[in-house]
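Next up, a chain.

===
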Amino acid sequence: MTTIRCAECGQEHDLSGIEPTYWRPDAFLALSESERETRVEHTKDFCVIYSAERTGTPRCFVRGVLPVVIRGQSEDLGWGLWVEMHPPQFDRVWNLWDDPDQNREPPLACWIANQIKRYPDTLGLRSSLQLESPSIRPTIRLAPGIEHPFAREVANGVDLPRSLEWRAWHLH
């Protein structure tokens, strides 16, 4: 059991198995309920947002996992994030989603579509999405050389206490 005293509420929480995860891309959450009903098509892994008139280029999002090494531990932590992609790349992911050989597809350009708590703006951080298999969410990798506090932590790995802080943020 891995517990930490929560900075949010002061209570002790068991953080075993908790991963920081975002339910939908921020662009979806910014819409009203009525806009979501008329302008959005979504599943647990895909989200497409159309203009109010359903003209022009839609915004396309895919859910993936950004792995982060926890130094001194045998398992990584996975951030459950959404990325935005250009429609042709999104269509490629959609078409390969159930293909057992999807991991042969080269990484596809994308950018982070969630504002991560307690960091400067993370929306739009350059990334890539690597398809893995029909039973595993795609892997997100931040582009190398990004000068951003979150990107530096991801690139360097974090210690166990930092990983527990990240997990605690997502309890509230």
Remarks:
- The CA atoms of residues 67 and 78 lie 4 Å apart.
